[in-house]
């Protein structure tokens, strides 16, 4: 079997920064096409303005990576599955949970691979953190995820619209890590969401979760951080403190600090190739479920208007 | 095996109006205790102010029916499962999706039955509606659920708090029916939620869903209806129109109208007895998922203050 002929759909920042290099660096894939309303393609690779135009063309593909905003993702994924293509979904996998459930059923019927990717789970320290926590007694968890939205999402209007997640767009990365490394299920007990008076989505959130043993998990999300940025997870255990810093890249355990090179997107594409080879899907909706729960259960406060 | 000794927890309106008569009318159950912060028990039946006091007592029970507001349901269910009791959950099964998922895992570990009840699925016309629609081509669905909150939820402050569902408290009944009778999965495309300026939860909602074939499903929820109340579902098909009126009680198919007696709660308790006998659980979170999606994806409008 030759390499998987993949098309990248939605040629924004994340496609250029992460997807294209990861595809270029993995011999299991070959970039067969790009799709974008704009003309931001890749030299020498067929470019289309819509996915429909690509599937109607004579360019042969086996898979698509969907990097568009979540509000537009379902229709693209459904079209791809109808055509028997394997689908790689950027995070979050959809704008709603029910549409992701519908895609899971669709992929099962189509017999193709659906992969809901969570890139932060492939951050360098995460696998070791998960292994270290697996049989430890956890006494408390703190997540501090504070960044400057003007730096990371300049002018991205969709992220503030209904179905864009606001500060949960980065926050869901933290949730994708802690759902992966904490051994017990957890759920929201109380939340406060701060929403700018001129926007639909929150700019900050204070979240109190509890796990099934009653352990408290506190999460502090804020998009108004200037200066040094914080993407830290601290897990207190009976055997000492685990720290994951830099979004999961740097792991500190009692007595040692582990640093590895970044391999988030290469890790995701290696996983996608494995899933395709094995004829399996991998769709874990827990991070999006926790975000939906925060919108469902959380108290909303109106705060100062936000202007880019 | 004798009858299932059941305790009813949360002796509010729904417990008195529905649960107690359904339990009294089913020989598979015997009412063994009641639990409520108030003294609103039943003559001749042991009454406790907390579930903990009941499980610490010498009153033997096999199961609990939890009729408290959803914000308090998880801890009660977890305590019951820890004690090896079967659990009947009023709708909605919890204040968040993740806590319900945690209970499912807990019940599986405990080896007891967990039943997330949706009483409207047992309305007289629903089973026939489901059978009639199973292999028909559906071209459109309309749900009109308009009632007077002052009549149905007088002074229920919790329903307006975060985690109370506002107008989705009745609306989730309609969702429990349409997730049951429509053959294809569906999901939210667009929603507008109207929230009174002095409350946390919506008083009205306009919801546009689509199914996986692209069929439109429109839902009109409103708690400000005075005069005649509307709980109607209209399904257009290639073979004519199906109407479910009165919350599912009256079914009209092309050429015939079917009326049956109400049997919602007797139906639920018959189902619960079957599940206990078979050692199974039944937890369908799709109705709550669609509500969470509406909070996640919907546009919020502030509307006039609401006073009881």
TrEMBL record, chains A, B:
Domain named Gfo/Idh/MocA-like oxidoreductase N-terminal is located at 4-115
* Xref: SUPFAM superfamilies: NAD(P)-binding Rossmann-fold domains
Q: What class of enzyme is it?
A: oxidoreductase
Keyword Oxidoreductase: yes or no? Answer: yes
**Which keywords does the record carry?**
Oxidoreductase
Q: What is its EC number?
A: 1.1.1.48
The superkingdom listed in its UniProt entry is Bacteria
GO-annotated molecular function: galactose 1-dehydrogenase activity
InterPro entries on file? Gfo/Idh/MocA-like_OxRdtase_N, Gfo/Idh/MocA_oxidrdct_glycsds, NAD(P)-bd_dom_sf
Instruction: Please name the Pfam families in this protein's record.
Output: GFO_IDH_MocA
- Please tell me the species this chain comes from: Novosphingobium capsulatum
- Mind giving the lineage of the organism this protein is from? Bacteria, Pseudomonadati, Pseudomonadota, Alphaproteobacteria, Sphingomonadales
Q: What is this protein called?
A: D-galactose 1-dehydrogenase
Q: Does the keyword Oxidoreductase apply?
A: yes
